[in-house]
Specification:
Elements lengths: L9 E5 L6 H11 L3 E3 L3 E2 L14 E2 L2 H9 L3 E7 L2 E6 H9 L3 E5 L2 H11 L3 E7 L3 H11 L4 H16 L6 E4 L3 H13 L3 H10 L3 E2 L5
Helix pairs in contact: 1-7, 5-6
Length: 210
């Protein structure tokens, strides 16, 4: 459980694969000194250019199962056949120091964090401008086969349908504007507007990493 003495907040950011959340979060971290990113644990192999401890903590399936059994994970999810999770201890330490923590996790993990932390977790869904633009971004990465891209796009449609139960939905159509909008949410300046947009079913427009 998270102590009431802790002043940090957790911001959960989800988006479909290729939705641009990594670029947005990198910009947010540079702009907000109290913000830190939780580095997820995963069983998937690293992509070219990814480093252990910076992008992800890459572990074996057996090591992941040990983390799960020992209760050291705040959340976990199986995404595209690989396991991802958030280590609980580093998150709680950051909160205890008054830092805000960003979790880049999928909708399965977001539900678990909301159940555990309730209103201490602010859920933000980063929407692509369109499925067509999302597909173009995945193709440019050149890290997946055509069949894998089709699976990711099918998953993206399911994930986008979950945006309605997030606290905020931001359309990632222009990078600078997206970062400003996300920064405002994190500072708390746009919480009222975000709630109004959610009641109306209208996402907030931001910026694109494309």
């Amino acid at each position: 459980m998270v102590s009431r003495r802790q002043t940090g907040r957790i911001f959960v950011i989800s988006s479909p694969s290729g939705g641009g959340k990594t670029t947005v979060v990198e910009r947010l971290l540079r702009a907000a000194p109290r913000l830190s990113r939780s580095v997820s644990v995963t069983t998937r192999p690293p992509r070219p250019g990814e480093r252990h401890g910076r992008d992800y903590r890459f572990v074996t399936p057996a090591a992941f199962r040990r983390l799960q059994r020992s209760g050291r994970l705040l959340e976990r999810a199986n995404v595209h056949g690989e396991w991802y999770g958030t280590l609980k201890a580093p998150v709680l330490r950051a909160l205890a120091r008054g830092r805000h923590v960003v979790l880049c996790i999928d909708v399965q993990g977001a539900r678990q964090v909301r159940r555990v932390l309730g209103a201490r977790a602010v859920l933000i869904f980063l929407l692509p401008p369109s499925i067509r633009r999302l597909r173009a971004r995945l193709l440019r990465r050149r890290t997946e086969s055509p069949a894998a891209i089709r699976r990711r796009l099918a998953a993206a449609r399911r994930e986008i349908a979950c945006a309605r139960w997030y606290d905020h939905a931001v359309v990632n159509d222009r990078l600078d504007r997206t970062v400003r909008t996300m920064n405002a949410i994190i500072r708390g300046n746009s919480r009222a507007r975000g709630a109004r947009d959610q009641r109306k079913g209208q996402p907030t427009h931001g910026a694109s990493a494309d």
